[in-house]
Amino acid sequence: MAGSGELTPQEYISHHLTNLDVGSGFWTFNIDSLIVSVLLGTLMMWIFYRVGKKATSGVPGKLQCFIEMIVEFVDASVKDIFHGKNALVAPLALTVFGWVFLMNLMDLIPVDFLPHTATLLGIPYLRVVPSADVNITMSMSLGVFVLIIYYSIKMKGITGFAKELGLQPFNHWAFIPINLVLEGVTLLAKPVSLGLRLFGNMYAGELIFILIAGLLPWWSQWVLSVPWAIFHILIITLQAFIFMILTIVYLSQASEEH
Asked: Which parts pass through the membrane (predicted)?
């Protein structure tokens, strides 16, 4: 698009970083991120359902073997980190890893392919990497934060959770205000760091692909885009893994005594 003279490089980059949204102010919804993330989540559940339904105890097919490797990997990670008994943690970790990975994987689709197709259909803007949208990543991290609060209260009781916030690290009533500030910042930092880490890495990766496509001639883009895409495979997998591991760690901390 930038090379055809329709848009300047600055306009091209701005166009690809603009979401298709509705509403205004706080109640602005990036519907492209919402639709893509829901479709990817539905696709993931459908794949796991089909594999589970057709699973055989004999020689597994390639897809079943791949899914079993993922399930065993996530299960081993949960057993190593979460030492309590909770039927939710392992399925949640598997869902987080698979969903975040698929959202990150959208970054490997050529920059202009889906947005240009959407333009032909009359859709002015389309961003197809939900994890490069801070609203999506922070929503997921807030979901984890709600579970942290829930399990902290469930496992320790309201009194135990309040003592953990008010009597740590200084176990004296006179230090309760200081403890509340320190523990409150630590507690709130968990969802903020969880969401912003994923967003920052994926936004940077998306921006590099857009810069390559917007600033270089079409015949030379592959020189940089292909090596970056190969390296980016490691990034998208690592970010999904980190999001999953931190989710397990935070829930483990919430389920244990200080």
From this structure: 26-49, 87-106, 134-153, 198-220, 226-251
